[in-house]
Amino acid sequence: MSDKTSLRQREGLIFERSSPGRVGYQLPPLEVPPVDPAKTIPAELLRGEIQELPEVSEVDVVRHFTRLSKWNYSVDEGLYPLGSCTMKYNPRINEEVVRLAGLAQLHPLQPEDQVQGALALMWELEQALIAITGMARVTLQPAAGAHGELAGMLMIRKSLADRGEHRRVVLIPDSAHGTNPASAVFAGFDVVEVASTPEGTLDLAAIARRLEGGDVAALMVTVPNTLGVFEPEIVKAAKMLHERGAFLYMDGANLNAFVGIALPGKMGADALHINLHKTFSTPHGGGGPGAGPVAVSEALVPYLPVPMVEKTGNLFTLSSDRPKSIGKVRGFYGNFGMLARALAYIRSLGRDGLRLMAEGAVLNANYIRKGLEGEYHLQYTGPSLHEVVFDDSLQAAAGVKNVDIAKRLLDYGFHPPTMSFPLIVHGALMIEPTESDGIDELDAFIAAMKAIAREARENPDLVKGAPYGTPVRRLDEVRAARQPVLRWQARKA
Amino acid sequence: MHRYLAGEDDRRRMLAAVGCSSVEELFKSVPAEVRCGELALPPARSEEEVRREFWALAGRNIAPECTASFLGAGVYRHVTPAVADALLQRGEFFTAYTPYQPEVSQGTLQAIFEFQTFICQLTGMEVANASLYDGATAVVEAVLMAHRLVPNRPKVVVAGSLHPDYRAVLDTYCAPQSLTIITVPADPMGRVDAATFAKAVGNDVCAAVVQSPNFFGVVEDLPALAAVAKSAGALAIHAVAEATSLGILAPGGVFGYDVVCGEAQAFGIPAAFGGPHLGFFATRQAHMRQLPGRLVGETVDSEGKRGYVLTLSTREQHIRRAKATSNICTNHGLMALAATIVLSLLGKKGVRDVALASHATAEYLKSGVGGLGPGVRLAFPGGPTYNEFLVLHDDPDGLLARMKEELILGGVSTTRFGAGLTRGFLVAATEHNTRQDCDRLLDALRRLA
Which of A157, A390, B160, B321 could form a disulfide bond with A429, CB atoms 3.0-4.6 angstroms apart? Predict the structure, then answer.
């Protein structure tokens, strides 16, 4: 390693910082008599000190993780236009209120009279999500979007079983998120993929044909779809499904496009998961935690997971008295901390702010679309809502692929768009700016994308070699997969 | 306009650029029949008003800090270093996405790699993933992995001493997979008897699940139960609901378990009324390609410098879709970071000290309860325990309610988990409980039981 690299650049693993005798935390003195575990537990079930654990000071730990943090790009630093991920600003007030001792320290098994505020919070969030979706009720239990999909599909399965029907097939458009087919399979269904129309939308004729078999349980569809285009015939699709006794599962990953504009309940959705970590600003945390509440139509209410928060007068209770429930999909009641943040966000924006939020997200996406049209190819030209999907076909002639464009964007200080998704667009660059940024930040992004388009024409190798200014250069992902090193190990002496 | 959004002028200039006279024109593709009027929600609130509303909500709760609390049953209050939350609140960590662009995500990736290493060290296993939702879903993923690895075996054997929530979630997930779950009840010592276990684990069983310390706090005979599973060709799964126990108890990895998984909330993650917590999952190198969820691996960049990437992604839903090893996408990465920071701070000495202190505090309480007489007594006086134990009482809810009036949260009543369990309550102790708290509990039990 070069001597010129800074301290920050050279930070190793926490285990490599270990130095015998350092400690990072002091426990209070033990006031009860010490007990040798060997006196109470059979010796063969015990272990000694774990030798590989590090010995570092509190200062070491602060320095280590602060240096690591500086290698990350984040929403706090700038535009994060990852399509389908809705990387919006995460307000600090949400972080403050969720850390109030009366919320953060609550044990889930405290007596109900000690947690009335927590139950009220969950009730209020459910009411807000009912207003936003136009659905009958909402379970707050699922931990993430995919978890919500599974819960929704299990409810559909149970409802069909109650009717004595064993429909096996779930229809999913080829533009769907990968979690949709995976969740359907884990709910016990077979997935049949449906090709999109040349416009990238639902092919109603194909769906109608498939429904004739009588074995279709549900259609899973994202609205607006993963191209950022509103499904023009969603109401008709819902009617077709319902007439045939099938359900409409709606993936709410793109709800940010129409909060306060339209209601999934009016579209005919039977179940819809809501990614609170997208539309309602709970932080993504480098991969989670999220929260994936599921809103359902009246038909599926009996099947909601237990427990649900119920209100009688001013008293809130956790009720498990739901004989047709699918049961529990996780421990306790949901990612309560994320539920609290989402409610704080909904309160901050209010009814008008939420609509302005959706409008801003759609306007920003259209502004970027306008700014980059001609520079990047647009395969599907239907009207964009909150995101726009370009591709790399104009750059491909010079051998520049979407991944090269993405890496070069890093040098310009932006996080790249989502790459190579949806699968129906070859070399996709899926851009979702969200409502958080103003025109200046969007202009800077457009200028960077245009500069890269120019570089791809004039100096393609420059783009193909990117990034140059990041903490590490392009990483060898093939090597990582072929020779997996998935943990640190002490060097053998 | 709103403080989280751009201004009127931004909007005017952008509308002009896209050639629209109003924002409404951008929504022309959304048909009238699905449109809504004004949402039935309050108007926008200032930060100060939001703060007031949440102060009021929090004020209607009683934080366990204001009581002597001995609640556990899967969620434990251990010491929480100030450093952990301070680092967690760095926007570079909590406002970043999943590290799909490794060149600008090395902080998250390296921290996850360190987390995977810590979990391997604690569990004695070879490979750990980047986290799951919680302990319950971690056990589910282990069983589903066994179902893939040992196909054509339609049964799962589960110790009756598994956390009832874990069991409930397992029931939910197994229903559509045509997996039958067989329960082996605990013996009079509060643990699963190996001979009884062996009768249940036949050659039609793909997974044998045992939690240790179990729901009643008792440490199971892990080596004997692993031997049973192995001889039947089933995957042996060790579930852990109290991860600090691994500071003194030998983990499943030592005894040949195929999976050690569960809940790591105990390492500094707030109880937060049940979540977000931290599911972990560790297994053998041989099962690496059947692992659920994200994995971080080491590699080098184009200049030979060490770096980290998400790897073996062909297992995952965004590549494999309907054939993925799990449907999980978003996991509990920030909670994994929290645990990584806490484990770094505790280190070699602290991980053991926390466990020793928790165990000693529980033993102090156990000997106190042991002298109270027949009305309130230890359920399993001969069963070895770590930091939690079951106390028998005819009316646990009434007794706990009387103690609550004195601001003592004396334990978790088994009646909260349905009718199947012995009447009593679970008492959990950690290094967070002072001797004064313990004496208050014992005194209250003496007077009120």
Answer: A390
Strand order in the sheet with A388-391: A388-391, A428-431, A418-419
The reported pLDDT for the residue numbered B418 is 77
* A37 with B356: Cβ contact below 8 A: yes
Report the run of H or E that residue A455 belongs to, with start and end: helix A439-458
Return the closest-CA partner of residue A386 out of A373, A368, A372: A368
Q: In terms of domains, do A294 and A329 share one?
A: yes
The ipTM of this complex is 0.98
User: For position A410, which CATH number holds?
Assistant: 3.90.1150.10
A344 and A383 belong to one structural domain = no
A65, A117, A349: residue with CB nearest B60? A117
Q: Mapping DSSP to helix (H, G, I), strand (E, B) and coil, where does residue A419 land?
A: strand
Which of A4, A30, A68 to substitute to test the interface with B, most B CBs within 10 Å?
A68
> Do residues A334 and A363 share a domain?
no
Q: Other C-beta atoms within 10 Å of B281: how many?
A: 27
Q: Does A14 touch chain B (CB under 8 A)?
A: yes
Ordered structural domains, chain B, with CATH: 1-36 (no CATH), 64-80+348-448 (3.90.1150.10), 83-340 (3.40.640.10)
Select from B162, B111, B160 the least CA-distant residue to B138.
B162
Cβ-based contacts under 8 A for chains A and B: 699
Of A49, A66, A83, the position where a domain reaches its end is A66
Q: Is residue A199 part of a domain?
A: yes
Residue A493 has pLDDT above 60, yes or no: no
What distance lies between CA A132 and its chain's CA centroid?
Answer: 19
In this structure, are A189 and A295 located in the same domain? yes
Q: Is A469 on the interface with B (CB under 8 A)?
A: no
- Please name the member of B61, B122, B345 whose beta carbon is closest to the beta carbon of A58: B345
Residue A323 shares a structural domain with residue A415: no
Residues A374 and A423 in one domain: yes
pLDDT single digits (tens) B89-130: 999 999 999 999 999 999 999 999 999 999 999 999 999 999
pLDDT in tens, B45-87: 999 999 999 999 999 999 998 899 999 999 999 989 999 999 9
In this structure, the answer to whether residues A327 and A366 fall within a common structural domain is no
Q: Are B200 and B214 in contact (CB under 8 A)?
A: no
A7 touches chain B (CB under 8 A): no
Smallest Cβ–Cβ distance between A286 and the set B6, B33, B96 belongs to B96
Amino acid A2: pLDDT = 45
When CB atoms are compared, the residue of A65, A120, A283 closest to B94 is A283
- Judging contacts by C-beta atoms under 8 Å, the chain A residues touching residue B323 are 185
Strands, E, within B14-145: which ranges?
68-69, 127-128
Q: Are residues A343 and A363 in the same domain?
A: no
Q: Do A71 and B107 touch (CB under 8 A)?
A: yes
Nearest neighbour of B176 by CB, restricted to A157, A179, A284: A157
Q: Decide: pTM greater than 0.95.
A: yes
Interface contact flag, B58 A117, Cβ < 8 Å: yes
Domain count, chain A: 3
Tell me the residue range of the domain where A42 lies.
Answer: 8-66
- Tell me the chain A residues in contact with residue B330 when contact means C-beta distances shorter than 8 Å: 143-146, 275, 277, 284, 287-290
Q: In angstroms, what is the C-alpha Rg of chain B?
A: 25
Please give the angle made by the CA atoms of A70, B121 and B333, to the nearest 5 degrees: 40
pLDDT band for A1, please (50, 70, 90 cuts): very low
- Interchain proximity B101–A415, CB inside 8 Å: yes
